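Hmm, how's this folded?
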Amino acid sequence: MPSAVNKESVNDRAKLIMHRLIARRLARDPALVERARDFVRRRLAEGGRWIAPRSGTASSAAAQRTSGGPS
């Protein structure tokens, strides 16, 4: 009898892989963080409802993503 796949575990693994890929891209191109902040500022100026961008650097954001929490 085949064992059931734990969907939650598979989902957690997929999210971890995605976060690691994003962290690598941010490490290679820290300007992406500023571009994202600019995008959010423009949306807010246009009346969009956005959460304010987080402060910090690309490397601190990447460290948080790869360590599983704030450093």
